[in-house]
Amino acid sequence: MAKKIVLAYSGGLDTSVILAWLKKKYDAEIITFTADIGQAEELDGLEQKALRTGASKVYIENLQETFARDYIFPMFQASALYEGQYLLGTSIARPLIAKRMVEIAQEEGAVAIAHGATGKGNDQVRFELTAAAVGGTLDVIAPWRDASFRAQFPGRAQMIAYAEQHGIPITASAAKPYSTDRNVLHISFESGMLEDPDFDASANDVRSMYVMSVDPQCAPDAPEIVHLAFVRGCCVAINGQEMSPLGVMQTLNVLGGKHGIGRIDMVENRFVGMKSRGVYETPGGTILYKAHRIIESLTMDREVMLLRDGLIPKYASLVYNGFWFSPEREAIQALVDASQRYVQGTVRLKLYKGNVINAGCTSDVSLYQPHIATMEEDVTESYNQDDATGFIRLHALRLRTFHAVQGARRS
User: Fold this and answer.
1) Residue 228 three-state SS
2) Which has the closest alpha carbon to 294: 246, 247, 362, 238?
3) CATH number of the domain enclosing 323
4) Is residue 337 flagged as an active site residue?
5) Are residues 202 and 320 in the same domain?
6) In this structure, what is the dihedral angle of CA atoms 50, 54, 55, 61, given to the nearest 10 degrees?
7) Taking residues 141-158, what's their average pLDDT?
């Protein structure tokens, strides 16, 4: 009986070529796994394509609700943002895909799993750290780290030529060489002309590249109002209609895309040590992120927010670098979950030409008390302004002491 290998399969250029290469090199039965996490039409005809390319069995599973509920929403409760810009759309999908791939490999009695991540990128780390966490000793095959594979395919041009020669349908071409990765949270673009950081990805002649959003310049001239209701830091309704996490993401993607929201063009630091340029569309995620921060500002205790916010860079790096199933991420998540206990209420936003504008927020557990914050007379006398004198004097004590001592030494 031929040994089995489970391949994470997208149907794109790399994994299509890798499928045929694995089958020949290892004389193995190749089982493909594709997680439907919101790739939309990219999945059309995928099963037939995989079988025609040489797969013995094809798994295509709809994991969109799981993805939104168990991965996207917990990450947004943490307000995770990598290097101040990236909402981690690709990063957060990898642990879900790898976990299910390992489970299928175990069910099928496979000897290994395989992926098409390059030896220069982050995905190889994300896939394999997850496999190590949930898959034990299951072998991992990474063709891009195999010298013979790289010798045969030194670049994308050779892979495109190979696919054309073997009748494998692909979307990449010499005229459109950039790669994409899409899910219900975002779509990313990299490589090709985008490898030049001076290339203008917002230019009019590049508009056809974008998938999830219109150019902000072409967005409606009138703003649109949207209401997001939150419970325990999770959006549960839009415009008064209750929705599941997946429903929230799908609805916000349509609204955000319509108004040109969520485009990011950045040079980021990869875990493996190099810088890379990525262009991202995250329309729904951008709306959700900003609405969540607004309702937190109204309901979250200051010190709890400072504590949670101090962990955002660490949390985001853990997700970006592939440590979703690490004990430290789970520990931070426990704190995040506790911090969200009272994050509830409704946020009103104005969507307009790429902008998400705060148009008001309310909560039954708001910590903002107008009678305390008012600049007018406080008839309740909840705050005595005279108390500020001693407050300032106490905080100034260490500053006066420090500068008195160090100033004398410097002089």
Assistant:
1) strand
2) 362
3) 3.90.1260.10
4) no
5) yes
6) 0
7) 93
Residues 306 and 223 in one domain: yes
**pLDDT tens-digit readout, 33-81:** 999 999 999 899 999 999 999 999 999 999 999 999 999 999 999 999 9
**Residue 123 annotated in active site:** yes
- Active site annotation includes 301: no
Q: Is the pLDDT of residue 104 over 70?
A: yes
Determine if the pTM surpasses 0.90: yes
Task: Name the active-site residue from 14, 16, 182, 308.
Answer: 14
Q: How far is CA 153 from the centre of its chain?
A: 30
Torsion sign over Cα 63, 66, 70, 71 = positive
* DSSP-assigned beta bridge partners for residue 242: 237
Domain boundaries, position 40: 4-63+90-175
SS3 content of the chain, % helix, strand, coil (to 5): 45, 20, 35
Same domain flag for 168 and 227: no
Q: What DSSP string runs through 30-98?
A: EEEEEEESS-GGGGTTHHHHHHHHT-SEEEEEE-HHHHIIIIIHHHHHTT--BTTTB--TTTTHHHHHH
| Contact yes or no for 351/287 (Cβ under 8 A) | yes
* Residue in 79, 91, 94, 126 annotated catalytic: 94
- 127 in a structural domain: yes
Helix H or strand E segment including 280:
strand 275-281
- Active-site residue, selected from the candidate residues 79, 123, 182, 329: 123
What confidence tier does 175 reach under pLDDT thresholds 50, 70, 90?
Answer: low
Catalytic residue among 10, 179, 188, 339: 179
Q: What is the residue type of 184?
A: V
Catalytic annotation on 79?
A: no
For the chain, the domain total comes to 3
